[in-house]
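Problem: given the chain below (224 residues), write out its structure.
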Amino acid sequence: MLNQTVLNQAILARAAPFAFYIIIMMISGLMQDAGVDARWMYALRAGGTALLLIYLHKYYAELVWSKRPTAQQLFLAVLAGLVVFLLWISLSQDWMIVGSTSGYDPRTSDGALDIGMVAMRLAGAALIVPVMEELFWRSFIMRWLDLADFQTLAPASVTIKALLISSVVFAIEHTFWLAGLAAGLIYGVLYMRTQNLWVSVIAHAVTNGALGLWVLKTGHWHYW
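Solution.
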């Protein structure tokens, strides 16, 4: 029998960190448009999201330590994450991009890298965002599209329709929409096949971590 209170708590626990992250990102964008250096707002965006995830961690049954991935699943996650990274930097033609962004440039006025900003951005992208987004997009949205009481739906039972819709909406969230679509599909299939959210979280973390290192090496800040 559906327990609406428990369901609402589960939904809020997955939606609140995501909503906070998006709201602070929008505020930062407005500040940047107004000529204010809002790069340090990323500390609030990532740090606040991390605190929410920690506070709400008891609602994330799929991320308890006992459900950590096997060695085979870990290998699969790393491989998938690297594949998505390669797709992300390859799917960059004009028609594959919506809008434009200057990205996140962590350099000081004299062109040197600000180590604090670099560390903050890498940590947020590789450690916090993957957990927040996989809880929202794969654990919640993808399963909820098939069943309101999403926590009772096994990942393996998710329909292709739900996988496609959630991946398309996930893609819309990103400037590089085609790369985002590919990422959503790959992370979604990983979750469905392994039935372990840790696998998609780790894959997502590998993608973001590799992308961050590549951006720092190449200076293509618009990818950030």
